Structures are given as structure tokens and as C-alpha cells.
Amino acid sequence: MSNNYFKNFPDKDGFFNEYGGAFIPPHLETEMNKINDAYFSISKSHKFISELRNIRKHFQGRPTPVFHCNRLSDKYGGQIYLKREDLNHTGAHKLNHCMGEALLAKYMGKKKLIAETGAGQHGVALATAAAYFGLECEIHMGEVDIVKEHPNVQRMKILGATVIPVSHGLKTLKEAVDSAFEAYLKDPETTIYCIGSVVGPHPFPMMVRDFQRVVGIEAKEQFFEMTGELPDNVIACVGGGSNAMGIFSAFLEYEECNLFGIEPAGKSFKTGEHAATMALGKPGVIHGFKCYTLQDEEGNPAPVHSIASGLDYPGVGPEHSMLKDLKKVTYDSITDKECIDAFYELSRLEGIIPALESAHAIAYAFKLAKKNPKQSILVNLSGRGDKDLDYVVDTFGLPE
What we know:
The chain has about 400 residues and is an alpha/beta fold. It folds into 2 domains: about 5-55 and about 95-205, Rossmann fold (3-Layer(aba) Sandwich), CATH 3.40.50.1100; about 60-90 and about 215-395, Rossmann fold (3-Layer(aba) Sandwich), CATH 3.40.50. It has helices spanning about 5-10, 25-40, 45-60, 70-75, 95-110, 120-135, 145-150, 150-160, 175-185, 205-225, 240-250, 275-280, 320-325, 335-350, 355-370, 390-395, and strands at about 15, 20, 65-70, 80-85, 110-115, 135-140, 160-165, 190-195, 235, 260-265, 280-285, 290-295, 330-335, 375-380. The strands form 4 sheets. Strands 3-4-14-9-10-13 form a 6-stranded mixed β-sheet, sandwiched between helices. It has a 4-stranded parallel β-sheet with strand order 7-6-5-8, with helices on both faces. A two-stranded antiparallel ribbon has the order 1-2. Helix 11 links the parallel strand 9 (about 235) and strand 10. Helix 5 packs parallel to helix 6 and helix 14 (about 335-350) crosses helix 15.
């Protein structure tokens, strides 16, 4: 990968090779073009960049640290490090792009932020950004996830957001995206749809990636300062893939760094029991863009499952789809059981309770450490597990 990678991808039409683009109604194309033009205008602006940096430092608490896991490294082999996005304000990486999107909305004169959420972290982050900038906020969330992620639902409401329950289909993330998109279509002039990952029609996959690049920029510098070299392996969980693109972005040009994106293998590889899009999906169009998708026999998005509400999506970011084809990133998967085991293991051995999404990446790090005991592993710990505690304990109980 050359240093011009971020100028070349996506192209002017929003494509990462064959993936991405904007497959949307004509009247929405006009609004997307306005967002694209505004983003390119302010992303080069010293005033915008300065304000965003100020927010990250004084409001979000960035930079987040890189932490060496001594006890996990001793037990599993290798040297395991965590990029602590769980220490970012609101408890996950999501605020990195939400503050940027809200700042863009303010610049464009928008009055209201609309979004979907699965695990609730994007919803909390966007509600936080709306409160910070004095904007209205509407979050669409599947009824299944509302029950699973009750603490985050309460946080959104306390922050002043309106939470819209989604009761059709599987009542999870895919349906929440559908619902939020429909709400946005009703009034695209005064509202902005703040997509929660590197998915959706152009320019959102590009914008969210760019706002999340701060994770990789910090992590590369911090890891080198701690060790004098780059990590041998970098791991992140992948649903839509924003936290993964954030950290991968800093290491794409280095052949010596192996990159791993970890999806949910769920209960099994039967349809409706996993969300392993890269392993079992094929190219298709979903929610206004082209990517690898899990499809049923009619070519519609297939039902999916993951113990982690933020990962149960039948598509994936278009940039991830390209990176899979280019073999720049290895995509693999972790089961629900492996995820839960890693959730408790990190909690008990290092005193860090991870989000179930992040626990997928932690579980894979254990496997990789056993195979390569002399290598370093940097995991993007994308979020903390407060939101998952009630669900995990009620469903699986406490370990012996």
C-alpha cells in the first residue's frame, strides 16, 4: 500500500474497487452530494481540525493508552497488548466519528441527528454528541437489543435522545438500520443520518474511516514507543467494521504487520445462527452500498445472530470487502462460547471487562498467541462491557 492509499480509496464515486458506491433514490443523491461537499470543505479547514482535536483531547480524553497484558501473555504465550478504546469517553470507539459527524451537521445547519444502534454504543455516542452541540437526536434500536442492552438505552434517554423501538423482522441491527434510514428519508434537509460504522452509501464509509483513523495513528506511535518496533499482529472485531478500519488504517502499508478482522461465528454456521459475512457471504447491495453480504435463496439479506449486538449485521464495510479480495487482511471468526470465555478471562486476569464485541478479538488473540508464542499482538479493545453485564450473567451465570 502506498502513502496515496487514502487519496485513491475510495474513488470519486465512493468505490473501493468494486465495492461501495451509493445505490440510493435520486432525491437522496442530492443530499449525499451536499454532505460529501461539506465534508471535503471542512476536513481541510484549520478551524474544523482544531475544534475536533480540542474535543478529542479535552472532552473525549484522547489519546487512549496502549496496555501490555502481563498475565494473559504469560498464560497464552506471545506478548498481548490492548489499545484501550474502552477508556474513550462513553466507553467505546464510537464517539470518535460521532463527534466528527455532529460537528459536520452543525456546520451544515442541520437540526437533528438520526441513527441506528445495535449494542447501543453508537447510540450513546451520538446522543452524547447531540447534547454537546445542542442538537436533537433520534436513535432507532431493535426491541431484542433494547432488552439486551438496557443500560445503554437508559444512558441515551438521560442524554436527551428519543429511542425508537423497532419491532419488525428479527428486531435487531439490520432492522434498526432500515427504520433509521426510512426516518431520514422523510426529512433529509433538516436532519442528517449519522451512520454508526464504515457502511452505507458514499460518503459515509470514507468519513467514518477518516474519523476513526485517530485510533491507528495513536496506536502505532504508542506501540513503537513501548517496544521499538511495530506489532507482528493487529486484531479487531468486525461487524460493520469501524473500529477495525480505524486501527488497520495505520498498518496497511507494512507487510510485516499481519491484520486480522474477527467476525461472529455465533452458535454454528447454519443460516441465522452466525454473522460471518466474509466467510460465507457474497457480493451484493444492502442499505445503499455494495459489499459482501449474507443472503437467503431469494438474494435478500439473510437472518443473522451474534451474542454481541454490535456485530449481528448481514453486511460489512466496502473497504473491508476490498481488503479481503486483496488479501491485505485475514478475516476469521469466533463462536459465542469462545467470546464468553474470553470475556471472563480478560476480566479475571487483567481487571478489564470488555464489550462482547471486543471479546471476539480477545478470543482470537488467545488462539494466535498459542500458535505464535514469540510474536507481539495488538488488539483493539473497542469497548467496555458495562452494557453487557446483566445479559451475560443472566444468560450464562458467573464462572466457577
